[in-house]
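Re: beginner question about structure tokens

> Can someone show what the tokenized structure looks like for a real chain? I only ever see the sequence side.

Sure, here's an example I had lying around. Input first:
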Amino acid sequence: MNPVAPALDVTALGIQITKTGDNDSPFLSEDGKKVVYISRKRPSHKQGQVYLFDLERLKERRITYQDGDCKDPVLTKDGQQVLYASSTDELKERPLLFQKNVSPTSLPPTEIYSSDLAGSQIQRLTQREGFDGAPWPRYDRPESFLYSIWNGKLFEVWQMNLQSHQQVKMLDRKDRSIESLRISPDNKRSAWIERLPNGESQIVVGPIKYQNGPERTLKLPVGEFKELNWLNDHQLVINAKLFNKKFQFYRFDLISDCIQNLFETNTDLYSPRPNSDGQGLVFVSVLNEKSDIFYKSLTTSDQCLKWEAKPVN
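And the corresponding structure tokens:
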């Protein structure tokens, strides 16, 4: 469903969903009717809390009321639960951890929680010292979700079953962090970002079962890769800073190796989250140190960017 609503403000960036506070980490429900996101610096609270915007009723509702900082909310496939990370219990149980530099991202220690949409039934899902965060649903296995942990040196990707709470490691590397692991809509491939020891990053596509097939490191311009998602079975949307410009969104076609600007702006753009048909996305724009969430429909183009390929590590 296309979440365009005539009562929302239409801007040059697209349809503006948020206006109050600083907002980030949007996630669009599978049916396109709801957006969850983090909002902070509001009159009622400074720390990040989970909010939900109903795109049919055009109403915003706060879901969490936690003491700590909430991050990275996502909706389960049925749209009835929110998964998110929060520092609330870590802050109470291990306050000394907040005085340490526990990860290169400067994120505080967090645990992962689930909540109903009313915010009345909250369950803590992880119980580990340090950073557990960035949950992401597996639509091919609605009872499971992916998430990241910091092992003291690098980021690894794990999977948890929502019913049994059984956890299994999905992907790690001895010399590089794994981030933004996403499974393709046809459930045949996955893609992720690898952060190398020299500070560079690269994008890799491989099988879902990582020991059962070849991996492919994409040939991309030199730059900083922040996040990726699948637009469809053979195209990725990549959040990157390329050609010494601002963070923007790029479409990469795995068949033709064509890379394109999705749209170009004079602001930094973050957190591209496509809708289920890949025809539009919610995202964050940062302008004058204020961040807001927008929705924009996507257009197709035959024009590919020209650049010199970098060596593949």
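Each token stands for a local structural state, so reading them left to right follows the chain. Helices lie at 88-93.
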